[in-house]
Amino acid sequence: MVRVAEEWFAVCGGCEVSILDIGEPLLDLLPSLEFVHMPVLMDHKLFGQTGEKKHMEIPEADVGIVTGSIRNQENKELAEEMRRKCKIIISLGSCANFGGIPALGNMYNNGDIFDIAYRKTASTEAGDNPSQGLPALTDRVYSVNEVIKVDVSIPGCPPTPEWIAGALTALLQGKSFSLPERSVCDDCPTVREKKAKVAIRRPLQAPEFTPGRYDNMRCMNEQGILCLGPATRTGCGGSEKTPRCIKAYMPCRGCFGPIRAGANPMVDMMGALSSVGLDPKQIEDRMATFNRFIGAGRLRPMPTR
Amino acid sequence: MKEIVIQPVSRIEGGAKITIQLDDSGNVADTQVNVLELRGFERFCIGRPVEEMPRITTRICGVCPWSHHLASAKACDAVFGVTPPPAGRKLRELCNSIAYMEEHILHFYFLGGGDFVMGPDAAYEVRNVFGIAQKLPDVARNVVKVRHMCAHMLEIIAGKSIHPAAAVPGGFSKPMTEAERQKLIPMGKEALELAKFSIDYAKKNIFPAYIDAVKTVGVIKTGFLGTVRSDGAMDLYDGKLRMMDPDGKYEDFEAKDYLDYITEHVEPWSFVKFPYNKKWGGFSMDPDNPKGIYRVNTLARMNVADKISTPLAQAELEEFRANFGRPAQATLLFHWARLIEILYNAEKTLELLNDPEITSPNTRVAATPRAARGVGCTEAPRGTLIHDYTTDEKGLVTAANLIVATCQNNAPINMSVKQAAKLLIKDGKYDQGILNTVEMTIRAYDPCLSCASHDLNGQLACKVDIVGADGQLIETLTNQ
């Protein structure tokens, strides 16, 4: 029996739904797992069931699964408590591993962000920034591994159910779990001829394809539709391999993060596009596009103009 | 003066705590539901190409990504001035209905169900889906299977069920093949069977046991907002908005005119704002004398709609209305209304899958960037959802405003909690079961605080500027 604790920080909940999307294999795994803390599904309280404890407390567990990025002091304290109580920490999803979409916020100063939310949107009656009884916010969005040591990283937005099941099964068997260090292109069935047939354009019209098929569709980038496949880790397609967005005839936006630790997707993409004869400078909003899911360690506020 | 803190509020989406203040005699003086999460979409959407919004705003919520995806795609349609071809629209509606089933099943059985199947004062270790799986293994196995099947249906139609990419400005990127349609129809039928089973099971085995609680716990009187077609039938994808006052009188308006009705108020103790109807004379969350308060989500839709367009769900609506009137106000009825909606969406799914036009290869039209403003609105499972974007001539976002379902229920959630706490906590006596019953009033709303807390990336909770006698700033102290 493996004791499991799960916590979420600045999240959308998609990683939790991905855990449920393991489906029937999850039912087979369940008898070997004992969940001791998981706010989305269970009522265990951080300060005791009737709020009697002074400090937040998570029960001891063999495995701690954490999702979401670190956005406030309470996220940080919870991450530290998870680290203290769990033997193995799994950071699940691209927010936990790279900041995810919320880390796009790192391109702006906090004061500016506050101003928009509480004083400047079209429907808001201007008010002071809320603060009573609320956790202090961190100066920027952090990935979990910037705050605590992580043992197993499973990226993806959302991560693949197969990978989550694979990691849990490996842990149950005392084996190690590792991810492929290949790109989305390595598993993409589209046809590459190493030369773009048109200049880069916005994805505002359909690419050419035959409905129901992927193996005769020309590579998105070669059709001039920016696709981040060359700089993104493969895996989203699970056992069927075909990348999930390609299945919708849509280009990759990089939600699984860099191909390997230390890779630089911005540089990799510039190279990939140039090599098929495209001009990356024509891409609107390059900084946010190339760092769409990985802004925690990479995006910084832009200088005010 | 004593304070009870329930943290985290569990079996909901996202992070919150309940603070209950007791007076010296141990009775409830005040309560607050404090939403602790914050991210900041309205700021960081600015500068992005607007066609990326349907792929960025899905990350507001991984439980209802389809709602954000579709509201966003509709807002993009309006910005670009394009109308999706019929098959594009129908594929969007189909995904909406399947996503609804998946989410409502998730809520009823995985999130809310523990309180009803195991009982509100069962031990917390078993008051959850794991407890249900022990007590009702066959039901649990079937529920897990059908919920997962709905996710798989979305993958077949759109490539991806969570954080989809297929709804694009001007339509839908992936046409449906006949082979896919044939694969989906039996799945739709299986989902319909679970929908029928669920409402029958609940009416026989669950609601009768809790009817006293339904009529007393968390009950407040508010207005309601939802979407209806031109014939007054409930619609979950498109239509006009209907705002009903607490006595049942209503007014219809176009979603793009939402600013004439909805204003958001800020309170110092929650990061989530408090939308209210500005035509109703101010804002007050006093349960005895509320002002401006309306609710969204399943119960609101049952109340505002004149009818439902599918036969089985219409029969259920008639029974519901005969039992509880229009507008029905009891908070725990959100669950009952949710089961009627699972049925409607199962029927709607089969209706769309049997429509020959659904397999047309013509699913999208091209778009060209321009400076414009576009409002997209849809009914998310948790209530009316509005995305409002303004762009420059390159089609880059210059302003974004999001009115999210759970924000609109923020004030009513606070009022229901206050009502329940005052009803149940007397003379300083409370236990886990009582505190959980207070939480149940929150769960009825199926709140998504991830959604609700989209709107702020946040800043320092405390900042002190030390200024010298000459007025010059010497130092800034923060609590980071």
TrEMBL record, chain A:
GO molecular function terms listed in the Swiss-Prot or TrEMBL record: iron-sulfur cluster binding; oxidoreductase activity
Entry keyword set: Oxidoreductase
Pfam families named among the record's database cross-references: Oxidored_q6
The keyword Oxidoreductase appears for this protein: yes
Keyword Oxidoreductase: yes
Enzyme kind, highest EC tier: oxidoreductase
Membrane-spanning parts: none
EC number: 1.12.99.-
Domain NADH:ubiquinone oxidoreductase-like 20kDa subunit stretches: 12-171
Protein name: F420-non-reducing hydrogenase small subunit
Taxonomic source organism: Dehalogenimonas formicexedens
TrEMBL record, chain B:
Entry binding sites for Ni(2+): 61, 64, 448
Listed cofactors: Fe cation; Ni(2+)
Molecular function via GO: ferredoxin hydrogenase activity; nickel cation binding
Domain of life of the source: Bacteria
Binding sites annotated in the UniProt record for Fe cation: 64, 451
Keyword hit for Iron: yes
Assigned EC number: 1.12.99.-
Keywords for the protein's UniProt record, in alphabetical order: Iron, Magnesium, Metal-binding, Nickel, Oxidoreductase
Cited Gene3D superfamilies: Cytochrome-c3 Hydrogenase, chain B
Positions that bind Mg(2+): 42, 402, 454
InterPro entries: Ni-dep_hyd_lsu, Ni-dep_hyd_lsu_Ni_BS, NiFe-Hase_large
A Pfam match: NiFeSe_Hases
Top enzyme class: oxidoreductase
Family: Belongs to the [NiFe]/[NiFeSe] hydrogenase large subunit family.
Designated name of the protein: F420-non-reducing hydrogenase large subunit
Species assigned in the record: Dehalogenimonas formicexedens
Underlying gene: mvhA
